Amino acid sequence: MEIFVCIKQVPDTTSSILLNEAKTDIIRDGLSYIINPYDEYAIEEALKIKDAAKDTIVTLVSVTAKDVSVTLRTGLAMGADRAIQILDQGIANADSLLIAKILAAIIGRSKFDLVLTGKQAVDDDCAAVGPMVAQILNIPVATFAVKFELSADRAYATVHREVEAALEIVKLKLPSLVTAQKGLNTPRLPTLSGIMQAKKKQIEVLTLSDIGISLLELSGAGKKMERAGLCLPQERTQGVILQGELSDIAKEIVRLLKEKDKVL
Prior knowledge:
Blueprint: E1 2-6, E2 9-11, E3 33-35, H1 37-52, E4 57-64, H2 69-78, E5 82-87, H3 96-107, E6 114-118, H4 129-137, E7 141-150, E8 156-163, E9 166-173, E10 176-180, H5 192-198, E11 203-206, H6 215-219, H7 246-259
Parallel strand pairs: 1-4, 1-6, 4-5, 5-11, 6-10, 7-10
Antiparallel strand pairs: 2-3, 7-8, 8-9
Helix pairs in contact: 2-5, 3-4
């Protein structure tokens, strides 16, 4: 069984985020980077399948304009077999659709059985690449998975997915794509032996020309989305504690909503 896991390198979630002067991007100097946390659930699910079926090959794939080999090594240390990095300066500032087209191009070269991704990346929160890859590859997709089961013949997968106020259970014919949600599993930590083995594992580095495509060919009429700007969340103001009779408190709440918050 061949499984591809799409991963993205993102700033460490404990990092202090600052914007550049033009408010078009974050200041990346000095930031530490990690595997996108939702992608770790995808890696773990692939490794669980590999634990149960030793003939399984787990390949990590990442599309980036900057080298992410250190992050890929973390995934290899967890137990993945190999990694592919599509590294090309032309990919800088690519939108979700362009990334999905590149991922689909590299995955589509192989006879794969399953593609796993995180439900979204924590840096842009688009949650779009996974379904787009499935659409381009013309395979079934289930998003926000919290439980995943393969049939005995490995021809189908049953996926429990979170939807608003409910749990939906779907059956997919393989090959298919599933995006991982928190709760699907508990990602394992790399062991010392895994870290040592990861140093010997292959990371294949390719450019767009290596896979026979050009950025112009991918983009068609151009990018479908442009980032207009970024802003930090507004700082929360200190709360107000009201005391007294309920009728007086109610009047004060109405006054504050009218005069201070301007919502009435």
